[in-house]
Amino acid sequence: xxxxxxxxxxxxxxxxxxxxxRLGKKVLVTGNGRCNVxxxxxxxxxxxxxxxxxxxxIFAQFDNKQTISFFNNLGxxxxxxxxxxxxxxxxxASSVVDILTHRLKDLGAKIIYETKVEDIKKIGDExxxxxxxxxxxxxxxxVIAAGGKAMPALGSDGSGYTLSESLGHTVTPTWPSxxxxxxxxxxxxEIKGVKIDGSxxxxxxxxxxxxxxxxxxxxxxxxxxxxxxxxxxxxxxxxVAGEKVTLRLxxxxxxxxxxxxxxLADRFNMLHKKAIKTSFLGFLQKRLIPEVLKAxxxxxxxxxxxxxxxNERKNIVKTLLAWDFPVIDTNSFKDAQVTAGGVNxxxxxxxxxxxxIVPGLYFCGEVLDIDGDSGGYNLQFAWSSGYIAGRSxxx
Length: 395
Ligand SMILES: Cc1cc2nc3c(=O)[nH]c(=O)nc-3n(C[C@H](O)[C@H](O)[C@H](O)COP(=O)(O)OP(=O)(O)OC[C@H]3O[C@@H](n4cnc5c(N)ncnc54)[C@H](O)[C@@H]3O)c2cc1C
Fold this sequence. Notes:
This protein is α+β, with helices and mostly antiparallel strands. The chain has two domains: 2-176 and 337-392, 3-Layer(bba) Sandwich (FAD/NAD(P)-binding domain); 180-331, no CATH class. It has helices at 2-9, 25-33, 54-59, 64-74, 93-106, 159-166, 188-191, 226-240, 257-270, 276-279, 288-295, 310-321, 377-392; strands at residues 15-17, 38-39, 47-48, 78-80, 85-88, 110-112, 117-123, 126-131, 136-139, 142-144, 175-177, 181-183, 195-204, 207-218, 222-224, 245-250, 323-330, 338-340, 361-363, 371-372. The strands form seven sheets. The chain has a six-stranded antiparallel barrel. Strands 2-5-4 form a three-stranded antiparallel sheet. Flavin-adenine dinucleotide (FAD) binds at residues 17-20, 25-27, 29-31, 36, 116-117, 145-147, 150-151, 155-156, 159-160, 337-338, 365-367, 376-379, 382.
């Protein structure tokens, strides 16, 4: 959409082939349906891939401020929320997609829906594009803006990679990112739906490699929530490298071992006649209590607080502050927000996004080997790279 708008604004005539029955199906679900359009604070460190510095070249030409002006000029009023995240005032992703679609129509884009690009060949100076309805058309430039393979139900099924490879490009290994983690532990069904404001550290081969704080949601297979999604890229990297990966959960933020031990000692003293399981009411989520006690090797949850030994208390402290779960894997592309890996950025001109292998071919968005953190970074790269690819393709 963005590539088409910038190409049209620069005088090109443009055809968009969209395999779905509407444009921007994935954009519709972004930011929980509110569309986290961009972020006020953007650096190359928010991006990953073999060459995340490519984003510097792109943002130097069209950055988050220009993106906000672009949307403001189209009528999307924006607001900034915590952690610099930018949303439309309407809180509706569909309004962003509608406005882009109106702009495309105003500029005279030809949009062919429910039409998948099956094949692209360069013959002489022309690209011959074959569509799923068995028709063919010729174009002098092509922009591949087909996304990755995250949530294929929303359109991007990985065919952008196949098309790029058929044109001579290489695609770096791809894996799901911003995705939930599957953990070992037989009791997740008992605590699914429980949310905590805690933190999670990723431990690979016994070394802590990353840590995130924030909301963590237990699910029937493991954990989800913003803090977990942020760790997922790193988790998969270490899993793929064959390392033993553990997730260390801290259920209570802001307490060290000593403080928590003292707090529990005082609490057990105060509630000395109560069962240990009852003593946690009002302090821990109810459904977590039996599982925390089991993990702390306290088999009898009816044991009186007065009978809890210092050692047992230490085990509870350890469970509350550093509860270890072996990571089986991440969830699959079906549930992922983005794809890590993609079209090799060494084969693409970092300023124009033109292919170094096939002149006249351009790439933008998630199909490239660039993925961003959660917080508006992925859409920002899609807007900026789309804008640049579309403009370059008209030169
Ligand atoms: C649940 C969810 C929430 C997200 N939330 C955010 C967020 O709040 N902020 C953020 O920055 N990012 C978010 N993202 C990530 C962001 O949506 C993507 O990174 C971004 O949409 C990528 O843009 P794109 O144009 O490269 O690809 P896409 O948006 O995937 O668009 C590619 C389009 O190409 C079409 N297509 C694919 N192959 C073909 C073909 N062969 N022929 C014809 N058409 C084809 C697809 O149908 C699709 O419409 C989220 C993603 C998900 C799944």
